[in-house]
What we know:
By secondary structure, this protein is an alpha/beta fold. It has helices at 35-39, 46-68, 87-104, 113-119, 121-125, 165-175, 183-190, 215-230, 237-262, 278-291, 300-303, 307-319; strands spanning 5-10, 15-22, 25-33, 77-83, 108-112, 132-137, 142-149, 153-159, 267-271, 294-296.
Amino acid sequence: xxxxxxxxxxxxxDETGVGVVRGHELLADAIASSVDEHARFGGVVxxxxxxxxxxxxxxxxxxxxxxxxxxxxxxxAIAVTAGPGLAGALLVGVSxxxxxxxxLGKPLYGVNHLAAHIAVxxxxxGPLPVPSVALLVSGGHSSLLLVRDLAGGVTPLGSTxxxxxxxxxxxxxxxxxxPFPGGPPIDKAARDGDPAFVAFPRxxxxxxxxxxxxxxxxxxxxxxxxxxxxxxxxxxxADVAASFQEAVADVLTRKAVDACRAHGVDHLVISGGxxxxxxxxxxxxxxxxxxxxxxxVPRPGLCTDNGAMVAALGADLVAAGVxxxxxxxxxxxxxxxxxxxxS
Length: 343
Ligand code: KG4
Ligand code: ZN
């Protein structure tokens, strides 16, 4: 049997993504972003994002199909992000996916955005070895998960008790006068900075849990900048960016390696928007090598939100013989990470 041809639709936040895969082979990945429309507000404005999805979705689907060299009629199944995410934004993707599925008579899978972030790595590095530990770090989530069978479900090991890692990047960027979203400009500024310039706190560093905390770090950066400005001194943006980034990468990689050790797992996959971070990737590579752990991180373009990741998870579900989601399923902005697809 040839691998299933799956069309994946992503609209949970500010990227409209449509991807086409055949099994674990990436055929096309069309993305339209409304990020520029949100930049002046310093965060994603849900209504603006929903409207942008409405305008971008069908053209993105056409671009993806044409780049993949396939027609809608050839698609075996459709997958769409059912949650978690912004309710109105999710609704646009779910409605479009339902319309395509109904018109074409194809099975439809409502999938979990977080599990899709993990699944996407297979498009680059082949089937995910199990068990694996997954470090999922995005704008809305930071979790460590045990993956025994991605299509069958994941086991949460720990997560952030306050801010997500990406959220910390976005907030610290704002403090430093850098644009939104904050990850890429901090990553860039940090290249010219000294990561040991400020010893920022590492929340929950060796507390024996797989949980994270980034809110204290963000506050520490804010207080440090305020103190500096109160003395009439300029803020060394590159040094603060590098020191902040070091604290985030240090705690994420330490906890990920510890989770692998605690569960006797020797494969770690890192995914989500923050996985695009250069320091996180480098430090993870270093620490995994020392610990004898095989590290998998998708290329940066596949770490941030895209449609290919949704298609990749859809292809896994089809291959595992999982039944499609019921036709009347709803988008669920709070879909828990344990629900890999909507059944
Ligand atoms: O996974 P994603 O695209 O969307 C969500 O599901 O949230 O992640 C977006 C987050 C943003 O907070 C952004 O600042 C962060 O990923 N990000 C990065 C980098 N690129 C994106 N954080 C650190 N370094 C980067 N290079
Ligand atoms: Zn995401």
